[in-house]
Amino acid sequence: MMFWHLLLAATLTQDTPTEREAAHDVVRKMGDLEKSLDVAALVAKVSAPNAERDKTVARARELMNKELLAMADDITKHPEIGFQETRSIGILTAYLKAHGFEITPSVADLKTAFVARYKGSHDHPALGVIIEYDALRGTKGAFHGDQHSAQGPVGIAAAIAIAEEMERTHAPGSITVFGTPGEEMMPPVAKTQMYEAGVFKGIDVIVRSHSSPSTQRPGPGFGSCCLNIDGVKYTFSGAPSHQMMPWDGRNALEAVIHLFNNIDAVRSSIRPEARIQGIITEGGAAPNVVPDRTAADFYVRYPDEVYLEQVREFTDNAARAAALATGTKVKIDNYGRMRDGVSSATLAELAFAYLKRYGGTKIEEAPGKPQGFDETGSVSSAVPGIGFSAATTNAPYHTYGMEADALTEVGHQGFVVDAQAMTALLSDFLTKADYRAAVQHEFDGIRVLFDEYRDSLKKVYAKPVVPEPK
Amino acid sequence: MMFWHLLLAATLTQDTPTEREAAHDVVRKMGDLEKSLDVAALVAKVSAPNAERDKTVARARELMNKELLAMADDITKHPEIGFQETRSIGILTAYLKAHGFEITPSVADLKTAFVARYKGSHDHPALGVIIEYDALRGTKGAFHGDQHSAQGPVGIAAAIAIAEEMERTHAPGSITVFGTPGEEMMPPVAKTQMYEAGVFKGIDVIVRSHSSPSTQRPGPGFGSCCLNIDGVKYTFSGAPSHQMMPWDGRNALEAVIHLFNNIDAVRSSIRPEARIQGIITEGGAAPNVVPDRTAADFYVRYPDEVYLEQVREFTDNAARAAALATGTKVKIDNYGRMRDGVSSATLAELAFAYLKRYGGTKIEEAPGKPQGFDETGSVSSAVPGIGFSAATTNAPYHTYGMEADALTEVGHQGFVVDAQAMTALLSDFLTKADYRAAVQHEFDGIRVLFDEYRDSLKKVYAKPVVPEPK
Amino acid sequence: MMFWHLLLAATLTQDTPTEREAAHDVVRKMGDLEKSLDVAALVAKVSAPNAERDKTVARARELMNKELLAMADDITKHPEIGFQETRSIGILTAYLKAHGFEITPSVADLKTAFVARYKGSHDHPALGVIIEYDALRGTKGAFHGDQHSAQGPVGIAAAIAIAEEMERTHAPGSITVFGTPGEEMMPPVAKTQMYEAGVFKGIDVIVRSHSSPSTQRPGPGFGSCCLNIDGVKYTFSGAPSHQMMPWDGRNALEAVIHLFNNIDAVRSSIRPEARIQGIITEGGAAPNVVPDRTAADFYVRYPDEVYLEQVREFTDNAARAAALATGTKVKIDNYGRMRDGVSSATLAELAFAYLKRYGGTKIEEAPGKPQGFDETGSVSSAVPGIGFSAATTNAPYHTYGMEADALTEVGHQGFVVDAQAMTALLSDFLTKADYRAAVQHEFDGIRVLFDEYRDSLKKVYAKPVVPEPK
Amino acid sequence: MMFWHLLLAATLTQDTPTEREAAHDVVRKMGDLEKSLDVAALVAKVSAPNAERDKTVARARELMNKELLAMADDITKHPEIGFQETRSIGILTAYLKAHGFEITPSVADLKTAFVARYKGSHDHPALGVIIEYDALRGTKGAFHGDQHSAQGPVGIAAAIAIAEEMERTHAPGSITVFGTPGEEMMPPVAKTQMYEAGVFKGIDVIVRSHSSPSTQRPGPGFGSCCLNIDGVKYTFSGAPSHQMMPWDGRNALEAVIHLFNNIDAVRSSIRPEARIQGIITEGGAAPNVVPDRTAADFYVRYPDEVYLEQVREFTDNAARAAALATGTKVKIDNYGRMRDGVSSATLAELAFAYLKRYGGTKIEEAPGKPQGFDETGSVSSAVPGIGFSAATTNAPYHTYGMEADALTEVGHQGFVVDAQAMTALLSDFLTKADYRAAVQHEFDGIRVLFDEYRDSLKKVYAKPVVPEPK
Q1: In what order do the strands lie in the sheet with A385-388?
Q2: Interchain pair A469, C325: CB under 8 A
Q3: Alpha carbons D207 and C323: distance in angstroms, whole number
Q4: Residue B451 neighbours by CB under 8 Å, 6+ apart
Q5: Is the ipTM of this complex over 0.95?
Q6: Mean of the pLDDT values across residues C277-285?
Q7: What's the whole-model pTM score?
Q8: Which single residue of B228, C99, C164, D464 has CA 20 to 30 Å from C105?
Q9: CA of A176 to nearest chain B CA: how many angstroms apart?
């Protein structure tokens, strides 16, 4: 047991020595929190045999096998990229409607987002299921290389089975499916836009399925798979002029080029864990005219959001300096943000226990890096929840192989595991007040430590003092 | 007379002190050549009253007024951009065919280029008429802001009138119309591609009409309106990698950026008359992937082609250095060249005399800068010829105003002037061996001086010696 | 006569089409002014035979031959670079003192500047002689490759001869020698510093001798040999840090590098007549420490001072942008300015007539470009005056050959010519009120036109409008 | 015991995930090697009480207290920077000579290097003592902020004591002191130059004392304090020209600036553990002349020498590309290299035991990162050896505080500890064949693993494939 806790601590998201130093106390307190919860005992108790839950889980399996695996195959074969998933949501919402869910279409000004609430109920405990359905953009067109095609069917199976359990047992509560478009793209950042529009308000727990090459779960804490990210667009305007008299113009291409040069100039003044990468999306119209409009698109990443702000100050100043030097003007548009989410052992370990119980293959015994159940961190840092990842493919993420696996046994088997494990956990959450309390207690504790960590980072990231030149 | 020669010399195309120094002897010899030709006397003699010519000119005017102005209006109203002028050439070739011309479509692998040869004859003197028909790309779509819509009708009027004179008088000779697409665009450089395919082989003189805000003609010599130009595309390939591990990639965007930086670094090492301007046509695909392919498009200009070669060495080395520094690879594609053309006083002054005789307005008495009748220099430095420019607009070149004028009296009046003047000169060239000899003599003389000038420039543009560093 | 005026106009200092356009009216008025003065007739009248002047000129020649050529040789053989010319001024001031001049040493806070005023008189007409004595810095040490070594002796010969004429004839007036150090260096800009300290206040005319490969004089107007110049130093401060943790520092070397990059980026947005050239004078201390202080020194040049201001805005913004992008700070020090001076035909043509009369060789008949008698323009745009340049060398400026010639017949002969011509003109100015009035009239007229020209330039140099990016 | 081995493994020098992956097998084998040696038992046996050793150690202490601490104080008070330590080596060699050592001055072409061999003997076991004596360059001049001033006295005390033991006991063997200048500077890299000249040939073990804020020793393995380093100078030559005609020159300042730009451009294509930092040592001579010579000095660092080669390829290509783009030429001078050295537990743990026994304060119980006894790695990767570091200061390295401490009790006490511990270990090595064999066995084993590690790295550092652009 001791060893396991040790591993949990080790998976905290501090990637750099400075972060680790800043996190010293937080890591210790996180260890204390987890020890106090005795998650292993909790999981053992909650997941003990239960006939009602078995019935519900069996119903989810039945839905998958009878209709929803076929639906998943259909969506896989008709991929639609982000914010254009009209066919897909047509199929998903029709099925939900047919099973008693009320549909609110195009929530938060997103055409292909929707909310499906069982009989419109907001009662507590309020259970939420997030589903995604957008395909990837490949060189041969859209394709489901991330198996989002199965997320809807899996989530729907669980939601309907739980709805039926509520009907059957008269357990108080509600169940809502959130249709969230365009996970692979930004802008807009769909889940953040939905969160800010209040779409998830009042929800007590959220689950999501995501296909995976192995059966796994995150450790408890806060973090993200791939650093905190700012998506930023820099647009420059200059003045056009014929190439023969360029001095009558102001060159917006030189400006965008110097944005990159200026960033390169400070790469060694920025901590090496940063990842700053951009492209030029508009680079001028014709070689015989001084370009008067150009644009660049950047992803700026850092392990924590506190220093990320300093990195952004560098990149924004790079843009301002480029404009100043070239006599052009710049517009800075921070169009998207990805931030650390929260993951809780009380949810993750129960989910993992069920994933194994229902037949998950290629088990990763050690918990992974802490990370939220949504990629933006907006929802997963505000609402307790967990992502389910049974093994569903033998290929890496974002490949044609992963798409192909969605249509065969390896995918189908895993999707059914996910549906059952998700249903089981939701059934426990619906019916056990103690368990709900433990989940909330851990979640609140981690959020407090997350704040403490950020405060601590603010102190270690002091900026160097630059005197006036003499 | 003296004064006039002085002005001719003054209009030579030497834009820089170095060029003027190098051209010192050439300018003197050019003065001698022109003096020896006594162009004023020649023009007076050739253009003396002639009933046969009057008949031919009247026929051209009749064709314009009866049918071809209407054809010009039609083409003006149906603009087609370069290399897509299928409707336009359909109308033009149908008319030519109906008047006894044999059409060879899509010459030199250019879909909308054609050759129309009267009864297929190649007899000498072989007269040629170049016509253009492509529209400009405007923000509201294609438009005839350069009045190429009227070039076809004007040239066809002259060609048919001359063909009929040959039938009528049994004068030996031939007449050919060259349909040349895409003047406003490159690549491809249509006239150069046609020239290299041998399309103009055996032609003794070429005329072309081009609309203009004034009635004018170039001085004798060699030159171009807007410097010698190389169009060059630089394409870089790198290796893609996810933003999280950029060291597994090679960044083609950094390469193309450093192409620009490297050129900027040597701007002060290049003579200030150069104009080097580029755009980035491909700047990367996604901000979270190291760009593995980028491209830039440059126009590199210099007053003469000799130093232009050195400028190109700088820009090509800039590209090679960018690839070397970034671990990428570069492809250099010099997709187009514009060079000095030759203009002859024997042709230009006769053309100008007729432009005035037939009612050209807004006369510019002083000859303009020497320049060829085609914008690439490929044809006009190889075949004697002259461009006709009667005033046809009150607006500047490349404007909506100029397009509008094509449909009204100012345009119509000028087009008819051009058609008549062109017909008169072709009639003289067809029938007067002395005149043909004088034209050829001047043209050959200027070509020799042009070669001498380039040889002389090669000497003045010595490169600085850079010793090995110690 | 007409032809001569034509040439004068042609030598005006408008180097660019834009300047020429802006100067159109000014050039015409300058022509009117010069025509109204009838300088040829004036020179003929003023320089008519005059026994008193002959006596004075003979005395100057005697001083040169007996003592001052030897003094010039001595100074040539003991070269001292700018602001270190203590031996040289020791010799010069001792001789002046011995001939009745009162010495004020180290004027305007310049150790090796001095004023030598004959018997302390400030009476009018107040004649001034500027002398220079600094050597060049060569790879083998200081050397008199610009023959400043002879300026002192020549100017002293004239000053003493005039002083003696005043004594002899009791002509009212005064004569002052201005010892001006460091012509070849800045900062400080010695003559500007002296001018601003009021050293030249009340002087009516100033003469200066400068060695030359030919006997020549400037045309009337305003101008400079080598464009208007701003000398600017950019100093950057950052924060030091060990190479192992560069993010704890701010890199001042990156800043100064980006100053250059930023300037290169706008070279094509600046009119091509500009000359912007810099060096890095401080480039960091040790490769294992992030540089926290760097500096660059620039000469920024343009044909006129109006657009030069815009060029400076570009270079200063380049520095500010470099600091902004790199998180460093910058200090901008415009340590020196060279501006157009005024040259008057009434002085230049009389000087030229005497240079020829007293034996100047290698005569350049056509007047040169207008330019003041001092290189800064500070004095020569405020006080009428003229530089004397008899041929004194067969070598180009700033060469060891020119130094060698200072010690042989070619130098000696020219120095004596300069001394005599200078003396003759000063004698005329001292004694002829009409001549003085004509000089002042022309000078005032040119100054008015100079102002008009600058106002006119301000209008043509409009900046392009850059809209906000959308 | 187990725990201790675990720590040893943990201190291996693999700084990056890639290195750790490549080192997986090597780390395991290193653990096996260390376990097989049972160093703790060996140390216990070797350091068991021994009267002869006690006598020798007492003699070293006596020499320190009677004369050599005073000598250290004297050298501290007369600091001399690298390669200028003539006074210091005068004192050191005189003392050694007086105690029977034969001096070979200025070995390996280094004026202030020397070899002092006791009675000239090369017998085995051949013991070596490296001493350093150069001061740091501070803003107030040279100072002994690294306490090299005491290294000579400490090493001499041990060497003389051992020499006397050999005399006394007739133990076979020899003792040599190596005077190595300029540790704080390069070029030249003194120890590498001495090593390559064969100065250390035949030596069986080498010891060196280095002052420290704590009493410590390295773990066994290979490594360096501060990454592998290449010192590289890039010198560019161009062609000079006056600023008014820069096209007649080639700008070497633009070249050196683009060296930096090119490096910045690939910073994100280089693994983030690299440290590349440079300064501009020559940045042009005068702002009105195109700079024709510039130079930059770089330290290029990476945790291992295998990838360092790839980093150097980037920086060298950056220089070549800068020359190519600017028309200049470049010379690349890799003037110095710092590489991993080897440290052996058999030596380090015995040394540490004695440091503690003789009174070392501020003990660091855990072994430090593996690293050689010399900073270049040249000697310490070829000859077994160990550095002695008793606590001798309360200040950080390279400070005025550390210099001050050299003159007071904290320094003196530690120097005497170092001298005694060094003497004790040398006495053991001299007299115990078993111990010598164990040392050699471990050293050979580590060298084999070091080679294996480098081979393994060569495999993981594959370069990305860049296709030809299409």
Answers
A1: A101-105, A114-118, A174-179, A126-131, A205-209, A385-388
A2: no
A3: 49
A4: none
A5: no
A6: 96
A7: 0.92
A8: C164
A9: 33
